[in-house]
Here is the input.
Amino acid sequence: MDMRSFGRRFITGLVAAFCGFALGAGTSQAQEKSRLDEILARGKLVVGVSSESPPFGFVDEKGELVGFDIDVARLIAKATFGDPNKIEFIRQSAAQRWPNAQNGTIDFGAQTTTIYADRAQRVAFTRNYIDGGIVLIVRKDAPFKTLDDLNKPNVTIANLTTPTQEERAKRLFPQAKLQTFDGIASQFNSVKLGRAQAAQLDAPVAAWYVKSNPDMRVMETRLTDVVNTGLFMKPGDFRLWQYFDLVVSEMTGGYLFADYSAIYEKWFGEKPKNAKWYLNNN
Here is the structure.
């Protein structure tokens, strides 16, 4: 075989191999559908939420599921289908969040879930849709201005039954007494009724309580840094994640911001900062 013939055969074989590879890749991509396609074909969202975490997700006096996360999920349904009612809520505990996302029981979760690196190893998070972090709530007429004012033997701090709150209270207020509660409502009421002088609450929860209890206030000094809260879903589906992350971006700083702002003000009594404004002015 002369060199020109060998060259022609080699190039022909190379082209055929490349075309075969491209065809196989195209077929594989066509077969690997995103869950987003399933959602659009189904015509509704399936969302995991809490029913025991006011003001994010809880059952009101009428027996209806309400809350900030519920309204946010409905806004996403409206953006997706043009109808906020094209949605099914799965009530789940904090522990059920991860398996329900991983096994596909839910399309995504909206459950006031803080973004941590170890959690991101199990689920995919969107960007932040509401700031979190721990603050102290006290009576409005209380004399406390600094954290040192609370570190006294005649002060009682109300905490939840979580190791992090107990550790934080002992570290920051070693001279104070501690009360421990199973629920946030009991924790808050202890301060309102004067049995405790301060309570550790997540910042949005504290804002919600102050909105309906003008005799209470939030101390300016935070106990933790501001943390991010994201929607979460099964990892590995880039198109699905990209879609919900984009919707969150538009809620917090784009064409959906007016609707999102109305939801935020409804539950927390104040308007949120537009994410674009926030980034450009800090």
Notes: Residues 35-131+227-280 form a domain with the D-Maltodextrin-Binding Protein; domain 2 fold (CATH 3.40.190.10). The radius of gyration is 25 Å. DSSP finds eleven helices and 15 strands in the chain.
